[in-house]
Design goal:
Elements: E1 2-8, H1 19-28, E2 33-36, H2 43-55, E3 60-61, E4 64-69, E5 72-77, H3 89-98, E6 102-105, H4 119-124, E7 127-132, H5 138-147, E8 152-155, E9 167-171, H6 177-180, E10 185-188, H7 193-207
Parallel strand pairs: 1-2, 2-3, 6-7, 7-8
Antiparallel strand pairs: 1-9, 4-5, 5-6, 9-10
């Protein structure tokens, strides 16, 4: 099985650390697959692909991003071009498919962080992030994923290299990495209040 980190943000969006530092942390923590899912841009993933290729690192990069759809955030995997934000989840899904990607709802029901609460969105996407290390609504996400027979993944929602690997997915070693997401198993822990506060302070300082 491959150990996969599927939800990380770099300094190219609202994360603290560079793509390189994130990759170094992933290797230190025994991660085999990583997706840099910056908000509304695949640039983090493309940079990761370049670094891994140039330095021949023992790491697979699944390109992706976290798209800001009109009714919630959507994790899109398998795309190397940006998906236009602010579209509906249905339109985001269609655009992702046109670029060869798949869609998972990010931290659903977590309305404070723009997680979808719209039932139609659950029917539309390929799968659901049913464990998010920062969400209090994972139990609802799991309930609806099972009710709709949707594939489930976990996300650290890491905004720093230190948080990489808080939630780990176990993927079968298939030739098609993208399809392996539909057979993921996972484990993880919720981030502590202290870790959340440290990140909030970082964001406040960044805005000053």
């Amino acid at each position: 099985m491959l150990r996969a980190e599927l939800h990380v943000h770099s300094s190219l969006s609202d994360g603290r650390d560079s793509v390189r530092k994130i990759l170094e942390a992933a290797l230190e923590k025994g991660i085999n697959v990583i997706s840099i899912t910056d908000h509304d841009t695949v640039q983090g993933s493309l940079e990761a692909i370049d670094i891994v290729s140039e330095e021949q690192l023992p790491l697979k990069v699944l390109p992706g991003c976290e798209v800001t759809a009109s009714t919630g955030h959507v994790l899109v995997y398998g795309v190397v071009k940006d998906i236009e934000p602010k579209m509906s989840v249905e339109e985001t899904f269609i655009a992702a498919r046109e670029h060869g990607g798949v869609c998972f709802l990010a931290h659903p029901f977590d309305f404070i962080r723009k997680g979808s609460v719209r039932l139609k969105d659950f029917h539309t996407v390929d799968g659901i992030e049913t464990f998010n290390a920062k969400s209090c609504f994972n139990f609802l996400a799991r309930r609806y994923a099972k009710k709709l027979s949707k594939p489930e993944i976990a996300g650290s929602d890491a905004h720093s290299a230190r948080a990489v690997g808080v939630a780990v997915n176990y993927l079968p070693e298939e030739a098609d990495l993208l399809r392996s997401l539909f057979h993921a198993r996972y484990d993880g822990r919720r981030v502590s209040i202290r870790e959340r506060l440290a990140f909030l302070l970082f964001r406040l300082n960044r805005r000053l």
